[in-house]
Amino acid sequence: MTHFSGGPSFISTLICVLGILLPSIECHCPHMMGLKAPGPPSGPSPPGKFPDGDEGWDYDETAAPGIVPEPHFIQSTYIYRSPNVQEKTFSSRVVTVLKDIRSRLEKSARLTLENENIECSSPTDHYRCQEYPSTGTWNYLIVEDQQKGAATYTFDRKYNEKNDGTIEMALLDAFSRHSPSSLIAFASPEAEKEVGYIRALTVQEMDSLSGKNRHRQISMEKFGSNELNLLEPALLEVRTGSGLKLTSDSLRRIDSSKEFDKLLDEYKNVFILFWTSNRMVSLHTFNLWSRVGDKTKVDDDTLLAHVPCHESSEFCQGLNAEDYHTVVSYKNGQNTGKTENIGDEEFYENWIELSLLGPLQKLPNESKFTDFKKGIVNGKKRPSVTIGVFPSDQDTSFQHFQIATEKLAGKYYTAYFINENSKPAITTYRHSEKQKRTDYSGKFDPASLMEFITKSSIPSVIDISNGFTTDVLFHQKRPILILIGRDSEPFSKLSARQDARKNYIFTKIDGENKNIQKTKKALGIDNDEPVIVFLNKDRVHLIPTSKPKCPDHLQKLLQVVSSSEADNVLSTKNPHPLRYLQVENVNKQFGFEETIVLPDHTLFLDSDPFARHPPISESGGTGGCPFMQGGGATAASDSIPHSEL
Ligand SMILES: *[C@@H]1O[C@H](CO)[C@@H](O)[C@H](O)[C@H]1NC(C)=O
């Protein structure tokens, strides 16, 4: 009985079966849909007739104003899949009834109904069919009006095929919900005694409807604005490390697990790097961390520390290569987060600050709210901040926002403000951008909130003059645009468009140095003319900056270029041209060394074949050692006590 011929199982949940079998469950028949049924208040009896002598609201110039309905406009789409004769007969009856209703409502209810019928029975059908299942049988009515927006209704042959009257009643039921008053009164005499069955799809059903949405990958930016210029471990690996200072006066050195436990009790916040002088990457990370220790001022309840594992090998048992360049954070003795990113001093300072602030700040009053909006956090201007305004912290939208920010802990400046009179709203502000504010327009589910925070926070144009994080540009699918040499209004305007950033990564190179020269040469740029480089994996196209006249023109040029022959093809046997920019940053941090830049064909792949981590792990961190575990909220509640070490 509950099986629906040919339809996937979720379709069967759409139908009204339960509503009929179990009256206690919400019924989908018209009288229980919140409509004022003209008939008796209970029981599925057909709606009553209009009072005698009243010809309905049939427009009459002389009638009293109260009974003349307001003109109203509704747009609808009947979209259906009818794989067999039985279904085809039904859908063609629906089409006829719709036509009939349309002219009747126009005449007597001052309702303009624009309807489109779309059949989706073969793969070549209307493009809108793509939003719906490509198998099974279904009948949907999408109704849209100015006040309520769009809703999708499902109705079924089985329950509506009795006669054209049942079909009519089902359709009128749906249209009634988009009209100032019920339209049931305008039913034809044949329909009056019938009951049709139709119901609106829930948000969940809408999501699961289209195969695309069901499998829709949430696409997030992997890196926050503090993480766009991280150091590449592979480039540290090839250095000698000679001359680097490997002691620190300002970091607390920890030699045993006993001491470690004691300090976790003593300090509210502890940040620790476990490192070893036997590994080149680790040794460079320690050098940076010791500089952070010298420079960063922290409160008395906060401790910056290090564990030299080459001298306390027992304490560090079980750590893996990546753990040796990971800084771990603890709050009140609990592991609250970690970062395996290697960045300059400012990167670590920001990360510490973000960890101390926690994933989501509460803005106590309007003046704090105003400051945060301007990007000012702890007295400093930040490239991007995200603020949620909620009517209450009991609101589901707030709780989902909280979940999203906890998953992104340590990466973004996020805050919330409670305003009883406000609807939930989330906005990202980037004060140095052309487009300074970006509003969230999703359904307040944690996944789309995370997507929004990560995407709206990233700069439209990433400055790579002094290097960049490897996976920001490599191991991904989008072509890279590089503006070299001079500002270009078409370029910056195009980069401000979100849909353009979906297709390209916008970057720029300013200034001159030896490595920038090497990069340009390797890209095949042999003069100093300002140029926009279109880099699609190994294909290089060059567009003189003077050529595009406006953003649309540039977009057009990019489309043309992408399908035309490349100006230059990179060989994967040579070092990647952009690697030189990363080398520049490494030299800047640790002093110049003449290192060999190795070719690496994996930089051209869509994903890193050696990646150990998904970008944002769902289950918190996965260090090789218990005290490395956690990150974000999960760790705070179920972290493993350090005494287990
Ligand atoms: C707003 O809150 C901050 C932090 O609690 C406080 O220092 C400040 O005085 C408050 N401002 C006003 C106008 O109430």
TrEMBL record:
<feature type="signal peptide">
    <location>
        <begin position="1"/>
        <end position="27"/>
    </location>
</feature>
<feature type="region of interest" description="Disordered">
    <location>
        <begin position="38"/>
        <end position="58"/>
    </location>
</feature>
<dbReference type="Pfam" id="PF13848">
    <property type="entry name" value="Thioredoxin_6"/>
</dbReference>
<dbReference type="InterPro" id="IPR040090">
    <property type="entry name" value="TXNDC16"/>
</dbReference>
<dbReference type="InterPro" id="IPR036249">
    <property type="entry name" value="Thioredoxin-like_sf"/>
</dbReference>
<feature type="region of interest" description="Disordered">
    <location>
        <begin position="612"/>
        <end position="645"/>
    </location>
</feature>
<feature type="compositionally biased region" description="Gly residues">
    <location>
        <begin position="620"/>
        <end position="633"/>
    </location>
</feature>
<protein>
    <submittedName>
        <fullName>Protein CBG18160</fullName>
    </submittedName>
</protein>
<feature type="compositionally biased region" description="Pro residues">
    <location>
        <begin position="38"/>
        <end position="49"/>
    </location>
</feature>
<keyword id="KW-0732">Signal</keyword>
